[in-house]
Every structure is written in structure tokens, then in C-alpha cells.
Amino acid sequence: MESFAGQIAVVTGGGSGIGRALVQQLAAAGCHVALCDISEPDMAGTVELCQAAIDRGVRITAHRCDVASESDLNNFREQVAQQHGAAHINLLFNNAGVSGGQSFLRDNREQWDRVFNICWGGVYLGCRVFMPMLLASERGHIINISSINGFWACMGANVEHTAYSAAKFAVKGFSEALLVDLRKHAPHVTISVVMPGHIGTDIAINSHKLWLGDADTMNAQQLDSVRERWSSFGADAAQLPDDTVRELLRKGGEDFRDNAPTSAERAAQIILAGVQQGQWRILVGNDAQALDQAVREHPERAYDAGFMQIGPAV
Asked: Rounded to whole angstroms, how far apart are CA atoms 284 and 296?
């Protein structure tokens, strides 16, 4: 797909982060976009950023949709067909995601299942629901967003990350299997699986808000759960005052976003370039490249305490 001009793209999680950057760059390239998210204000912000493209005739539509819900996605598909006046789409970006459910043993099942159902279920259902519209196109391409946690199932030797990692491993395996399936049964539809490293987005901030609410309004039980989690990493957090916990949460989310080695805008550029070049496997960021190499070269040591010091700087 050498040009995005005149194509129709669906982007899930288009209200912020990589999703917002993808929508902006696709629109700037002349691609019509239907984006979805659970936050209507965030989607309105994305649409506003695309106003110059809209003024040139690019169609941008925004749709509230929980990607873990098949009925929501079915409604989204019908709205796309109606508002874009087409029975097909050309590009499907299964991008929506959330963090949480770190421990299978200690975190509550509701949170664990919710993370898995968004990060994996949203990709699976997105492909199920929009496959007829992809098959109806002359040329279609699926882009499934996995993660470095799709080949390395933690955030470090002492930092569990089970729900997110299990989901992202599923996305990677499904995408690779679908590559062969499509080649055999629908060769005009192709696929890319994307493994971003640390990207500067609001995922940490948004995930904290989803599970714990805004830092300023967290209750005593929620604050204690944060202290307990930090203590499990070896931090001396038990006696931290409430205001300090709140400030550290705010600063942690902002630092994750603002001090990342790769911006959301750069991540979107790498993804779209990979799609245009026909890459089925797209690593995003030098950290992703280095970690991928280290895991391949030393798989048996991937979860050892000293693994981050192996080979290239990860």
C-alpha cells in the first residue's frame, strides 16, 4: 500500500497516544478515518487536530466503542459503512489497549480479565467484525498492535505483568498465524504485527484513572493498594503520606509519557512506513530492537535478574 490517499482506515483507541498520532498522520496523507475510543472528549481532541485535513475533504468520524464488546464493535462497523458510504475498508488498526492486572496471583480477577479482554479481545473481535469489509476491498491491510511484552512477559525480573503480557503474546501469535491464513485464502488482505517499546503516551495515566480514579480523589483503600504494590518491588512505601503517594503517581505517569525514548508521533511514522514497505513484523524504538535481539540470543536468561545488562543496552 504505497499511498494512503483515498483509502478508508479504522483506528481503535484513536483518542490518544499512538492511535491519535496514527489518525493525524493518515488524515494528513489524505486517508479517510473512522476512529473509536471510550472517551468522547479525547476523540473530539483528535478530530480537532485533523481540521486542516477535514477542510481539504478528508472524512474523519468518531465513534464511542468499547473494543471488548462485540455488540459495540458491530455497531461501530455499521456506523462506518453508513457514514463513510462504503461497504469496505482498506486499513484496520487494532490499537486500543490498557495496562493493569499485573499479578495473576494477587490482583482481582475483574481487573485481570478486563485488561485481557481489551488488549487481546479487542484485536480478535476487531478482526472478526471488520473482516468482511476488508475482504470487500481491492486491497486491505490489518495492523495489530502487540508490544515488546508480546515476546518478553514482564517489566523486569521483579515486576509482574501477566494480563498485558498474555494478551500481547496472543496478539503476536494470532497475527503470525493469520499471515499464513490470509495468504492462502485472501491474498489481497495482508497483515502487520507491531511491537512497540517504551512510547511516550498517557497509557500509565489513563490506566491509573481507570482502576484507581484520579490521584486527587483516591480513597484510603486505593492509596494503601498502591503502597502495597510499591512495597512488593522493594520500595519503602508503607509510611508514605497520602499526598506523597498521589504526587508520585502523577509524576510517574507524566515521566512515562514525557521521558520516553520514542514519541507517539515517531511511533506512528515507523508503523505507517512499515505498512507502506509491506513489513509483516514492525519493531518500534531502539529499545524494542535491542530487547528483541537479547531475548533471541539469550532466551533461557530472559527472566533472570541481570538480564537487562545482557548484550546491547535495553
From this structure: 17
